[in-house]
Protein backbone atom coordinates (compact mmCIF):
# COMPACT_ATOMS: atom_id res chain seq x y z
CA UNK A 1 0.00 0.00 0.00
CA UNK A 2 2.71 2.47 0.91
CA UNK A 3 5.51 3.01 -1.58
CA UNK A 4 8.20 3.07 1.11
CA UNK A 5 6.75 0.34 3.30
CA UNK A 6 5.18 -2.77 1.84
CA UNK A 7 2.16 -3.29 4.05
CA UNK A 8 0.80 -6.79 4.53
CA UNK A 9 -2.07 -8.08 6.67
CA UNK A 10 -2.01 -11.59 8.04
CA UNK A 11 -4.21 -13.50 10.45
CA UNK A 12 -3.45 -12.96 14.13
CA UNK A 13 -2.15 -15.96 16.07
CA UNK A 14 -1.39 -16.62 19.74
CA UNK A 15 2.27 -15.72 19.15
CA UNK A 16 1.13 -12.14 18.48
CA UNK A 17 -0.41 -11.56 21.91
CA UNK A 18 2.64 -9.84 23.43
CA UNK A 19 2.86 -7.46 20.47
CA UNK A 20 -0.89 -6.81 20.54
CA UNK A 21 -0.78 -6.08 24.26
CA UNK A 22 2.08 -3.60 23.80
CA UNK A 23 0.20 -1.99 20.91
CA UNK A 24 -2.95 -1.67 23.01
CA UNK A 25 -0.95 -0.09 25.83
CA UNK A 26 0.57 2.43 23.41
CA UNK A 27 -2.91 3.57 22.42
CA UNK A 28 -3.84 4.35 26.02
CA UNK A 29 -0.65 5.91 27.41
CA UNK A 30 -1.64 9.54 26.80
CA UNK A 31 -5.00 8.87 28.41
CA UNK A 32 -3.30 7.59 31.58
CA UNK A 33 -0.48 10.14 31.68
CA UNK A 34 -2.28 12.44 34.11
CA UNK A 35 -3.22 9.74 36.60
CA UNK A 36 -1.20 9.82 39.82
CA UNK A 37 -0.41 6.10 39.55
CA UNK A 38 3.12 4.74 39.38
CA UNK A 39 4.20 3.00 36.19
CA UNK A 40 3.67 -0.50 37.56
CA UNK A 41 0.05 0.32 38.48
CA UNK A 42 -0.56 1.78 35.01
CA UNK A 43 1.00 -1.26 33.37
CA UNK A 44 -1.08 -3.67 35.46
CA UNK A 45 -4.25 -1.75 34.63
CA UNK A 46 -3.46 -1.69 30.89
CA UNK A 47 -2.56 -5.38 30.83
CA UNK A 48 -5.88 -6.21 32.50
CA UNK A 49 -7.76 -3.94 30.08
CA UNK A 50 -6.08 -5.55 27.07
CA UNK A 51 -6.99 -9.03 28.29
CA UNK A 52 -10.61 -7.98 28.85
CA UNK A 53 -10.85 -6.35 25.42
CA UNK A 54 -9.17 -9.25 23.65
CA UNK A 55 -11.43 -11.80 25.30
CA UNK A 56 -14.51 -9.68 24.57
CA UNK A 57 -13.64 -9.35 20.87
CA UNK A 58 -12.94 -13.07 20.55
CA UNK A 59 -16.23 -14.00 22.24
CA UNK A 60 -18.50 -11.41 20.59
CA UNK A 61 -17.02 -11.38 17.08
CA UNK A 62 -16.10 -15.03 16.42
CA UNK A 63 -16.35 -14.60 12.63
CA UNK A 64 -14.25 -11.43 12.44
CA UNK A 65 -10.94 -11.13 10.63
CA UNK A 66 -8.37 -10.50 13.38
CA UNK A 67 -5.31 -9.35 11.46
CA UNK A 68 -1.82 -8.10 12.23
CA UNK A 69 -0.56 -5.30 10.02
CA UNK A 70 3.07 -5.82 9.01
CA UNK A 71 5.70 -3.75 7.27
CA UNK A 72 8.68 -5.69 5.88
CA UNK A 73 7.66 -8.65 8.05
CA UNK A 74 7.55 -6.60 11.27
CA UNK A 75 4.25 -6.17 13.14
CA UNK A 76 3.17 -2.51 13.17
CA UNK A 77 -0.54 -2.68 13.96
CA UNK A 78 -3.81 -4.55 14.08
CA UNK A 79 -7.00 -4.52 12.05
CA UNK A 80 -10.11 -6.27 13.31
CA UNK A 81 -12.90 -6.37 10.71
CA UNK A 82 -16.25 -8.12 10.52
CA UNK A 83 -17.59 -8.55 6.99
CA UNK A 84 -21.19 -9.63 6.45
CA UNK A 85 -23.47 -9.76 3.42
CA UNK A 86 -24.74 -6.23 4.12
CA UNK A 87 -22.21 -4.48 6.40
CA UNK A 88 -18.55 -3.99 7.23
CA UNK A 89 -17.97 -3.43 10.94
CA UNK A 90 -14.55 -1.96 11.66
CA UNK A 91 -13.98 -3.27 15.15
CA UNK A 92 -10.50 -1.83 15.59
CA UNK A 93 -7.57 -0.43 13.71
CA UNK A 94 -4.42 0.77 15.43
CA UNK A 95 -0.77 1.29 14.60
CA UNK A 96 2.35 1.53 16.73
CA UNK A 97 3.31 5.16 17.47
CA UNK A 98 6.16 5.36 14.92
CA UNK A 99 3.71 4.49 12.09
CA UNK A 100 0.90 6.83 13.10
CA UNK A 101 0.25 9.99 11.14
CA UNK A 102 1.83 8.71 7.92
CA UNK A 103 -1.38 7.94 6.05
CA UNK A 104 -1.20 4.15 6.46
CA UNK A 105 -4.47 3.97 8.36
CA UNK A 106 -6.10 6.15 5.71
CA UNK A 107 -4.83 3.86 2.96
CA UNK A 108 -6.10 0.75 4.71
CA UNK A 109 -9.47 2.36 5.40
CA UNK A 110 -9.79 3.47 1.76
CA UNK A 111 -9.06 -0.08 0.54
CA UNK A 112 -11.67 -1.58 2.90
CA UNK A 113 -14.26 1.01 1.91
CA UNK A 114 -13.58 0.39 -1.78
CA UNK A 115 -14.24 -3.31 -1.19
CA UNK A 116 -17.39 -2.42 0.77
CA UNK A 117 -18.53 -0.19 -2.10
CA UNK A 118 -17.90 -2.97 -4.61
CA UNK A 119 -20.06 -5.29 -2.50
CA UNK A 120 -22.65 -2.57 -1.75
CA UNK A 121 -22.08 -2.75 2.01
CA UNK A 122 -22.60 -0.11 4.64
CA UNK A 123 -19.73 0.38 7.09
CA UNK A 124 -19.71 1.17 10.78
CA UNK A 125 -17.36 1.78 13.65
CA UNK A 126 -17.07 3.23 17.12
CA UNK A 127 -14.54 5.95 17.95
CA UNK A 128 -13.77 7.78 21.17
CA UNK A 129 -15.32 11.24 21.21
CA UNK A 130 -11.85 12.80 21.70
CA UNK A 131 -10.06 10.74 19.02
CA UNK A 132 -8.93 12.92 16.08
CA UNK A 133 -9.43 9.93 13.73
CA UNK A 134 -13.11 10.83 13.68
CA UNK A 135 -12.18 13.62 11.23
CA UNK A 136 -10.79 11.01 8.82
CA UNK A 137 -13.94 8.94 9.20
CA UNK A 138 -16.13 11.97 8.43
CA UNK A 139 -14.09 12.71 5.30
CA UNK A 140 -14.73 9.11 4.21
CA UNK A 141 -18.50 9.53 4.52
CA UNK A 142 -19.13 8.30 8.07
CA UNK A 143 -21.74 10.13 10.11
CA UNK A 144 -22.34 10.06 13.85
CA UNK A 145 -25.52 8.06 14.49
CA UNK A 146 -25.25 7.71 18.25
CA UNK A 147 -23.08 8.31 21.29
CA UNK A 148 -22.74 7.01 24.80
CA UNK A 149 -20.59 9.71 26.40
CA UNK A 150 -17.29 8.04 25.52
CA UNK A 151 -17.79 6.66 22.00
CA UNK A 152 -19.41 7.96 18.87
CA UNK A 153 -21.19 5.34 16.79
CA UNK A 154 -20.46 6.19 13.15
CA UNK A 155 -22.10 4.77 10.04
CA UNK A 156 -21.26 5.09 6.38
CA UNK A 157 -24.26 4.23 4.22
CA UNK A 158 -23.98 2.03 1.15
CA UNK A 159 -22.09 3.88 -1.60
CA UNK A 160 -22.25 3.21 -5.28
CA UNK A 161 -19.14 1.42 -6.54
CA UNK A 162 -17.03 3.60 -8.82
CA UNK A 163 -16.77 2.16 -12.31
Q: Low-confidence parts, pLDDT < 50 over ≥5 residues?
A: none
Please give the share of residues in helix.
Answer: 25-40%
Q: In one word, what is the shape?
A: globular
Rg over CA atoms, rounded to whole Å, is: 16 Å
Strand order of the largest sheet: 1-2-3-4-5-7-6
Give the ordered list of helices and strands. EHHEEEHEHEE
Mean pLDDT: 93
Strand content: 25-35%
Largest sheet: 7 strands, mixed
The number of helical segments is: 4
SS-derived structural category: alpha+beta
Number of strands: 7
**Distance between the ends:** 21 Å
What does this structure look like?
- The chain is of the alpha+beta class and 163 residues long.
- It is 37% helix and 30% strand.
- It contains 4 helices and 7 strands.
- The protein has helices at residues 17-32, 39-60, 104-118, 133-139, and strands spanning 7-11, 65-71, 74-83, 87-95, 122-128, 143-147, 151-156.
- It has a 7-stranded mixed β-sheet, sandwiched between helices.
- The mean pLDDT is 93.
Amino acid sequence: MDKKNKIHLRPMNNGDLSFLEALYCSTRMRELAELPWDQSAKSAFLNQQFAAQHNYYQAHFPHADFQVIESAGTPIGRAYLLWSDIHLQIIDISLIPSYRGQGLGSQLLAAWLERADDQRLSAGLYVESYNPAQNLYRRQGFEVTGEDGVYFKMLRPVHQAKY
